[in-house]
Structures are given as C-alpha cells and as structure tokens.
Amino acid sequence: MSDSLHVRALSAWVIVCVVWGTTYLSNDLAIASIPPFRYASLRFLSAGIIVFLAARWYAGDDGTSVRDIVLHPTARAGMLTLGIGVGANIWALQWLPTGVAAVLVAGVPLYMVLVDRFVFDGARLRPAVGLGLALGLTGIALIAMEQSGDPSAAEASLIAVAGVIAGGISWAFGSVMIRYTSPPADLASTAGAQMLWAGALQGAVSLVVGETLTEPVTLLSGGAAVYSVLIGSCIAYSAYLYALRHLSVAFVSTYVFVNPVIALWLGWLLLDETMTMQTVAASAVILAGLALTRFRSRSRKT
C-alpha cells in the first residue's frame, strides 16, 4: 500500500472513531420524541438516498446499472451491519445509558476477528494483535466496572443488553462479508445501497410493531436526527467502508475501543458528568491496545 493511500485509510478510520463516538448521544436525543425503528428507518433511507444519488452523479456513465448495485450481496450486507447492528443499538437506548451501550459494542473486534479467522478462513490471529485486542477489552472492562455502579446501568433491561450484543455479532458478519466481496461499483454507491437496505428493514420492523408518533418531534430530536443522517451515516459510514477496504479487519474494528471513551468524555465536557481517575486509566489502556494492534496491522497487504 502506498503511503498516501495508507494516510487516507487511517484518516477514514479516525473519522469513524470520532464521529461514531458522538452518535450514541445523537441517537439517544433523537429517540426522545421519535420511535426508534422509525427513526432508524428515516435516518438510513435519507442518508442512503443522498449518498447513492451523489455517488451515481459523480461516477457518471460507468456501465454499472442501479439494479446490479442495489441487488449485489455487498449492498444487502447493509441489513446486517446497519439494519440489525446499528438498529439494535438504537432500539436498546430506550433502556440503556449511552455509555453502557457503547461499552457493550466493544465486543465487535473480537467477533470480527473470530468471524474472519474461522468463518472466512482469513488471516491467522497474530499474538501481538491478540494482545492488543485483549488490552482494549481490558480498558473497556474497567469502564464497564465503573458504569456498573450507576443505578440506571444496573437496572438496564437484560433483553436490551442481549439486543446490543446480537447486533454486534450481526455487524461483525456483515463487515467481514463486505471485506471479502468485491462491490460492483464505487464504495460510495455501495454505501448508499447498504443504507437503503437497512432503512427498508427498519421501516418494515416499525410497521410490524405498530410504531406511532405520540408527541410532536422536538427541535433537539430533529437536530440530532439530521446530525446522525449527514455526519453519522453519510460521512462516517462511507469512511468506514473505505478503511475496511484498505486496512486489516483487526485494526479497523478497534474503533469500538475509542467510541466509549469519546462518549464518556463528551458527557464530562457537555453534560457536566464526573470524570474519574479510573476512566482516565481505562482510556490509557485502550489507547495502548490500539497502538499495539496498529503496529502489527501496518504491514498487512490489502
């Protein structure tokens, strides 16, 4: 991989780390007055239309039909990553604090590496990468231990917890499938098609469960939804697919180590929540795990 391509891939990964660390908050604010499945459907359908149309306009007449893009397995994988993966997380925020949800999603790197190795017969897990993942999970565990003292976290629904974990496993399968399947067109078109599939799935679920608006959508919820569409989906998800194409699965998946740290620090900066020494120490452990995984992943050819 050339140095310029490597820098672009790393930049895409940084965008994913930072932006998705903020979307736990924006999702929670959005579902305060919008039913979760309807919100997820509107978020992904809106973002999907924007990204897909922009990508097709930019690509011009490249000989690829819309049907080939939308019906390709890479596009349908969006139901696993966004539809079930993110959708389950949004749904669970009705009962789980945003920080707890972010901590639970931290199991995704383990799922991705195991799926890559044992389902898709991918690269053997190197000791250094395994140690980096272990350090990251240790840091997440330290944060989880501190969060467990929060009564709201202790009373969180077990069903919601199971939903987040199941969503993480679904995300892992979809992500590894995307990595090993060549898209029929550019990544932006593929990302848009994936969002459309996810939005359709969430819309169907919303209809099945009979969601209705029980109160007017507040300005805060509407603003959070717009942020999630434009920044969380249009920009960050496209960056995620780009990073996944050019960096190792093990390294890209470590974004979930950074997300809980950002979520907790945002709470301290914007919501005047307490930042303890245990949180600071956990953040340091997480970053150490990232550094180790990053060092061992750089040499992998893509």
From TrEMBL:
Topology within the bilayer: Multi-pass membrane protein
Main location: membrane
This protein's UniProt keywords: Membrane, Transmembrane, Transmembrane helix
Any Gene Ontology CC annotation: membrane
SUPFAM superfamilies referenced in this protein's UniProt entry, alphabetically: Multidrug resistance efflux transporter EmrE
Record field: transmembrane: 7-25, 37-58, 98-115, 127-145, 157-178, 190-210, 222-242, 249-271, 277-295
Subcellular location: Membrane
InterPro entries associated with the record: AA-Vitamin_Transporters, EamA_dom, EmrE-like
Limits of the EamA domain: 13-144, 160-293
Stored PANTHER family: EAMA DOMAIN-CONTAINING PROTEIN, INNER MEMBRANE TRANSPORTER
Family per similarity comment: Belongs to the EamA transporter family.
Protein name (Swiss-Prot/TrEMBL): EamA domain-containing protein
Organism field: Longibacter salinarum
Taxonomic path: Bacteria, Pseudomonadati, Rhodothermota, Rhodothermia, Rhodothermales
